[in-house]
Amino acid sequence: MYNAFFGFKQSPFNLSPDPAFLFRSPQHDEALANLIYGVQSRKGFIVLTGEVGTGKTTMLECLRDYLYSQQIAFASLFNSRLTVEQFFEMLAYDLDLRCNRLSKTEVLLGLNGMLLERAGAGRTTVLIVDEAHNLEWDVLEEIRLLGNLENRRGKLLQIVLAGQQELDRKLLAPDYRQLKQRIALRCSLRPFDRYETAAYVDSRMARAGLPEQRVFSSELIEEVHFRAQGIPRVINAICDNLLLTAFALETKSATFEMLDEVTADMRLEYPGRSPLHTGEAYPETHFPGFPAATQRD
Ligand SMILES: Nc1ncnc2c1ncn2[C@@H]1O[C@H](COP(=O)(O)OP(=O)(O)OP(=O)(O)O)[C@@H](O)[C@H]1O
Ligand SMILES: [Mg+2]
């Protein structure tokens, strides 16, 4: 709605996990490198955890792009509230297994054949499960068993489980011990620090078409960071609403008053008041420096 007014080619703060807007913060970069390394080196189980809205699905989208580019076959389950039967049906559907998809035995036979054939040709196959913290125990157990399939060169199926921190807690339970032992790689995402938030906002604005944005002052971004608690999804929602408000008022710079209104409308809860509001200075910290507009490989 406001794109033409500000001169954006695309909306900068969409809530979708779009790899085109990827901001390569060190932790996101590391998580993606780990996911790719884990798959390439046939590590078996890889787990990605993080707080709500910190970028897990975005990382999986980037991984999917990579797998496409390398012609690596994969199945990805984004709805993890599945029964065992539904799980096998979806797996067969995603991997295009030519068998009776409603029969677990047939799916397993088809999968085994496919994995062995692909492994024989030096190719790997990947199963990606998002929202894995929602998986029922019996489905997780089936996934663990799939993770056991191997030949002498490594695991036949690389399994990426991504989920909220409950997934870590779930894997600590005695029932999940066997699975936990098999996890070869773990990575996690945390909320941004204030410098990452500033670089993140600039990066999204640049990618949308405003490389040297002046809509958000650095003080305002600090306050956005504080109120969003460094969570990318919340930062996006606040900034999008700020742009909308500024557009409605026909101004190209967002203000603290607009921020108050936006966060009140969002019923946003954040602890106490930020140093900016109390007049205290933030402690001096070195700015690590991020590229303003991030490039994807
Ligand atoms: N590194 C990043 N670069 C660009 N955008 C990001 C990044 N991290 C998160 N985002 C943005 O934040 C929002 C939330 O990201 P995402 O959906 O990937 O989070 P999530 O961890 O999967 O959340 P949930 O726990 O609810 O599943 C999206 O709009 C996404 O584009
Ligand atoms: Mg997600």
Mean pLDDT: 90
User: What profile does the largest beta sheet have?
Assistant: 5 strands, parallel
CATH topology of the largest domain: Rossmann fold
Spatial order of the strands in the main sheet? Answer: 2-3-6-1-7
In terms of quaternary structure, the protein is: single chain
**Proportion of residues in β-strands:** 5-15%
Uncertain runs are: 278-297
Q: Given the structure, what is the number of helices? A: 13
In the CATH hierarchy, what is the architecture of the largest domain at level 2?
A: 3-Layer(aba) Sandwich
- Outline, from the CA principal axes? elongated
Radius of gyration: 22 Å
Helix content: 40-55%
| Chemical compounds bound to the protein | adenosine-5'-triphosphate, magnesium ion
Number of discrete domains: 2
Cα end-to-end separation: 30 Å
CATH class division of the largest domain? Alpha Beta
How would you characterize the overall build of this protein?
The protein is α/β, with parallel strands linked by helices. Helices cover 47% and strands 11% of the residues. The strands form two sheets. Strands 2-3-6-1-7 form a five-stranded parallel beta sheet, with helices on both faces. Helix 10 (218-228) crosses helix 11 (232-248). The longest helix is centred in the middle third of the chain and has 17 residues, at 104-120. The two termini are 30 Å apart. Residues 278-297 have low confidence and may be disordered. Bound molecules: adenosine-5'-triphosphate and magnesium ion (MG). Magnesium ion binds next to helix 3. The site of magnesium ion has 3 residues, from helix 3.
